[in-house]
Design a protein that fits this description.
Oligomer: single chain
Number of strands: 7
Distance between the termini: 28 Å
Structural class: alpha/beta
Largest sheet: 7 strands, mixed
Helix content: 25-40%
Strand order of the largest sheet: 1-7-6-2-5-3-4
């Protein structure tokens, strides 16, 4: 309930609303992986509050060190990783996600690894594409512009309307290497994010 309270608190107190495009692209009969750009705290609240699926996050284990918030996070059935472990972290992530595939849920990964300013996107790390191929989990790409109203370098929240664009599912069976899959995911998210920033995102 805490993410919902925070999300709708930002909406009714700060005037930070949202419009979602492509909600029909969310699969109803399979588990899948969401790859999204990362600009602010807002999208972490949005996914777990609004998506019509059980949600599981991959996140850095260091978040457990935050008093109260981190302790509560550690009690949830999600996937913390030690990013300094490299390939070992990826193997752990694969094992934990495979155990969840029958639960009809979605795994959310921010493949940039950290937040970026609005209109900026970092290269996607390869781990998420490896995970998708190894577990045969299709990818649902998502782009948004939350950083335009809730910046990573400021505590201020500005009123406005965040655009969230959910893309068509990316079928992993069409790709033979993680690098190809990673590039395809990155290309869709980047291009869609730039359309949103430029005000050219259609069907909204």
């Amino acid at each position: 309930m805490w993410p919902k309270i925070a999300l709708y608190g930002a909406k009714f107190i700060c005037g930070l609303s949202w419009t979602t495009k492509g909600i029909e692209n969310i699969p109803s009969d399979e588990s899948f992986i969401i790859l999204s750009n990362h600009q602010s705290t807002w999208e972490t609240l949005f996914f777990i509050s609004v998506l019509p699926k059980n949600v599981c996050y991959v996140y850095k284990r260091e978040l457990h060190w935050i008093p109260f918030f981190g302790w509560g996070l550690a009690l949830l059935d999600m996937i913390p990783i030690n990013r300094s472990k490299g390939s070992t972290a990826i193997k752990q992530m694969i094992t934990k996600w495979q155990n969840k595939l029958n639960e009809s849920c979605c795994l959310i990964i921010f493949p940039e690894g950290s937040r970026n300013l609005s209109n900026k996107i970092g290269q996607f790390k390869l781990g998420s594409a490896i995970l998708a191929l190894e577990t045969k989990s299709n990818i649902l790409p998502v782009a948004h512009n939350s950083g335009k109203f809730w910046r990573i370098d400021s505590m201020l929240i500005y009123p406005g309307n965040i655009i969230v664009s959910i893309g068509p599912i990316i079928q992993v069976k069409k790709y033979t290497t993680a690098d190809e899959l990673n590039k395809a995911s990155y290309k869709w998210v980047k291009n869609e994010m730039l359309k949103i920033e430029d005000g050219n995102c259609k069907n909204i």
